[in-house]
Amino acid sequence: MSAPATTNDLSRPRGRALPGLIDGTLVTLLLGAAILWFAPVGMGRYGTYVLSLWLVMSIAVMGLNLTLGYAGLKSLAQAAFMGLGAYTTALLTTKLGVSWYAAFALSGLLTFAVGIVLGFPALRVKAHYLAFVTLAFSTLIWLILRNEQWLTGGVFGISNINRPDFFGIKLFGALEFHRFVVAVTLILAVAQWWLIRSPWGRAFTALRENPIRAASLGIDTRAYTLLAFAIGSAYAGFAGALYAPLVEFIDPSPFSLSQSFFLLLMVVAGGAGYLLGPFVGALLGVVLPEWLRFAGSLYLIIFASIVLLLLIACPQGVSGLLERGWTKLTGRRGGTR
Amino acid sequence: MAEFTAYLIAGIATGAIYALAAIGFTLVWQTSQTINFAQGEFVMLPAVLVLLAVKLFGAPLWLGALIGIFAFILIFGAGFKLVVVDPMIRHGVLPLAIATMALSIIMKEGAKDGFSAEAQNFPSFVPTSTIEVFGAAISLQHLTIIACAFAVIGALQWFVGGTRLGRQMQATAQNPTVARILGIPVERMVLLTFVINAALAVVASVLISPIYLAKFSNGEVIGLFAFIAAIVGGFNQVRGALVGGLVVGVIDSLAAAYISSSYRLAVPLVLLVVIILLKPEGLMGRKEERRV
User: Fold this and answer.
1) Which pTM was predicted?
2) pLDDT at A232 over 70
3) How far apart are alpha carbons B181 and B179 in whole angstroms?
4) How far is residue A336's CA from residue A323's CA, in Å, rounded to a whole number?
5) With contacts defined as CB-CB under 8 Å, which chain B residues touch A125?
6) Coil, helix or strand for A143?
7) Considering its fold, how many domains does chain B have in total?
8) How many CA atoms lie within 13 A of A235 on its CB side?
9) Which of A122, A264, A300 has the CB atom closest to B109's CB atom?
10) What φ, ψ does residue A333 adopt, rounded to 5°?
11) How far apart are CA A266 and CA B72, in angstroms?
């Protein structure tokens, strides 16, 4: 494999630097959060649940976007990390009575630490070995979740997971919990927005664009790739910690290897390397199938085919398509993102 | 001891299947840098297509097999290369790998929706009886698998090393630029490896499906073990994929018998991690970097 082949075309060319500035992405995030805060009014319990699920999945996809879209690494364990977070939170809150906030933080920390432990040996060798190590990890987690009945409840899972309070406000209702999810998602999204603009984030991008040049510029490539992967995994842990109280029941099936594949497809569908891409990807992957109920399991085939076509026609995903359209419309290069 | 021999033979038999899948995986990787995450589904699908052809056309088994296998090699050998790999290879390795994941979902869900969500019997062309060897009851099916798989791998080795076409293919894998200068039709050679990959998948599918039954989800485990076999053996070696496949198959079989049946999958995974830690170039791999 020649050196330039390690860079990839999943990302768009970029060149502008707007450190610390309020930009279009941040405005979109804030506006989106405001809209989603009020959106579920009159949508009913189920509609609200779907919206919350969308945001929770977006967090996991956001993490994977950092790993894949910004650092150019393949992780095939995002769903497994999400499962790790979900089970950690569920076990801590139901069996040990730990508060959700502590469980949330611990889920993130645990997935971050596991990310470091997994990534260290794999990245020591070659970037694509991470794919195989995470593949193995994914299967291992799934086996443990299914087999260790005393801890995880096996295929029956864990039920009656409580939703947290917010300074004394009960979040049991669908709408209240949805607003809580909106707030957490916003915080995590803004954190990532900040991260990507920080010198760290610049280093992540440098790694993907040209690892050899990045190394020659004095960037400790191994440390940064490892960090990107671990932070991406921690986002999956956070997503899991929100997923458990949202669904109030967890079993191993949503954390299988195929789910990890599915999350990767969502990253690509939305647009790898775009901060808002994960929301689009999760919209296509999570919300659309709920609306297209009649398609049933065919939806998975339709979705995968769409991603396949997107990859052939426009590897930058829907966000890339939108950007192309926007550039054409305004007749200038580098419009808002 | 008799029991051990039986497990060993069973392990070599499944290992031979993993080796077939891993060799195809390695060939495709060598010539086109395609990490095919749908490799397991490639082994799952031919059996399903054969049964589907029998069901749809009411054809006798041999005709169904012919139709199914031909369709598979056409679509997932040549078609895969021309429709998926060719337009995407210019985007780099990563999008292509993700595209194969999309393909694996399409194949799996397609088999589930278009064929059956339940496991279906797949006819065996040898009796399902056992024979007695030194007191061990050995399944005839296992012996057939081993014989057929080794015959196919031997033929492949002869083709790659002993024929003009095979050596052209090897040259393409090792250095496409020089191969092109030497007048080797590189594009056609790459296409050939994809067709060989599909053919190997067909052989694996026909051999394993009488035992595992034809089911849409079979590809998950086979694919996983094929990756492990390829890496354990040495990522870019046909010989390595063979050794890796056998090692993984035997370890899997013995682990299931003597360690824990619910964690049988975990043992090869541990082996993978150990190999990556200690000998990342694989058991048969050479240390030097390939083609920089």
Assistant:
1) 0.87
2) yes
3) 5
4) 8
5) 276, 280
6) helix
7) 1
8) 31
9) A300
10) -90, 150
11) 28
Lowest mean pLDDT among A213-217, B29-33, B63-67, B80-84: A213-217
Do residues A127 and B263 lie in contact, with contact meaning Cβ atoms separated by under 8 Å? no
- B292: DSSP letter: -
User: Are the beta carbons of B280 and A126 separated by less than 8 Å?
Assistant: yes
Task: Give me the sign of the Cα torsion angle A47, A52, A53, A58.
Answer: positive
Chain A's closest residue to B82, CA to CA, is A312
Residue B103: closest CA among chain A residues belongs to which residue?
A304
Q: Choosing among A137, A261, A310, which should be mutated to test the B contact, i.e. which has the most B CBs within 10 A? A: A261
Note the ipTM here: 0.84
Interface A:B, Cβ pairs < 8 A: 136
Residue type, A31: L
Classify residue B285: in a domain, yes or no: no
Enclosing domain of residue B66: 2-223
Longest dimension (CA), chain A: 62
Mean pLDDT for A248-264 is 92
Span B180-217, pLDDT tens digits: 999 999 989 999 999 999 999 999 999 999 998 999 98
- Residue among B98, B178, B288 with most chain A CBs within 10 A, to mutate: B98
Indicate whether A18 pLDDT > 80.
no
Residue B188 lies in a domain: yes
